[in-house]
């Protein structure tokens, strides 16, 4: 375990725990959404039960995401403003990777708001926005890998691997069960299922797994008035 991880404040631990749980729940939600859609919908379980589980997992994801954001902003080691949680790439501390987290949050909030307005928007518009939840997942996993000073820990790496295997496996299973229609959509899904694991692996190897990655980011943050 790195020295940076050991010297974190209680709020930092709470933020990482909330973020990690949110990523796990988001992964489960995405896998369930992929596996239960279209022709792959389960026959022994009613769509109402699947939809209810999917919705409850989504809400639980947002709860832990809120814990992650609030504790990160309140953490005195890195001076983050509340605006950082809604305005992407506005932080001085790891602006790119924190910005990705903000993008993921904004996408999920858009899904939440439009779900409440589903009847007014109509099914087609709601579904179009609902796809943002799937886009939020890879953004969230890159945010977690790029921001966390504990990314080099074996347990955290295994977690990322499990999330990747789960989602990619669900995508390929869905593609195998899909019919001949929507060729473009199936092609995009297949390319994404290959590109995301390759891109994340390359990033981890060139970034967080390199010695001094977390220390360099912390030094930069200290120069801006905070850091760990």
Task: Please characterize this protein's 3D structure.
With 228 residues, this protein is mostly helical. Helices cover 73% and strands 0% of the residues. The protein is built from 10 helices and no strands. The chain has helices spanning 3-6, 10-35, 47-74, 95-116, 118-121, 123-130, 132-147, 154-177, 183-206, 213-223. Helix 4 packs antiparallel against helix 7 (132-147). The longest helix is centred in the N-terminal third of the chain and has 28 residues, at 47-74. The radius of gyration is 18 Å and the shape is globular. The two termini are 15 Å apart. Mean pLDDT is 82; it is low at 1-6 and 219-228.
What would the keywords be for this entry?
228 residues, mainly alpha, 10 helices, 73% helix, globular, disordered N terminus, disordered C terminus
């Amino acid at each position: 375990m790195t020295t940076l991880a050991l010297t974190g404040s209680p709020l930092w631990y709470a933020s990482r725990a909330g973020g990690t749980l949110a990523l796990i729940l988001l992964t489960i939600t995405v896998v369930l959404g992929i596996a239960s859609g279209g022709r792959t919908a389960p026959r022994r379980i009613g769509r109402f039960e699947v939809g209810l589980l999917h919705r409850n997992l989504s809400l639980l994801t947002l709860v832990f995401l809120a814990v992650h954001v609030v504790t990160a902003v309140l953490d005195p080691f890195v001076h983050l403003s509340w605006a950082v949680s809604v305005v992407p790439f506005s932080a001085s501390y790891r602006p790119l990777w924190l910005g990705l987290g903000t993008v993921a949050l904004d996408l999920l909030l858009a899904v939440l708001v439009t779900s409440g307005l589903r009847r007014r928007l109509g099914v087609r518009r709601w579904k179009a926005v609902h796809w943002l939840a799937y886009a939020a997942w890879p953004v969230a996993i890159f945010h977690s890998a790029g921001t966390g000073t504990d990314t080099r820990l074996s347990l955290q790496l295994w977690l990322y691997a499990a999330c990747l295997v789960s989602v990619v496996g669900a995508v390929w299973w869905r593609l195998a069960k899909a019919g001949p229609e929507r060729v473009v959509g199936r092609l995009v899904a297949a390319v994404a299922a290959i590109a995301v694991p390759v891109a994340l692996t390359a990033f981890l190897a060139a970034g967080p797994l390199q010695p001094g990655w977390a220390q360099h980011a912390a030094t930069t943050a200290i120069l801006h008035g905070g850091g760990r």
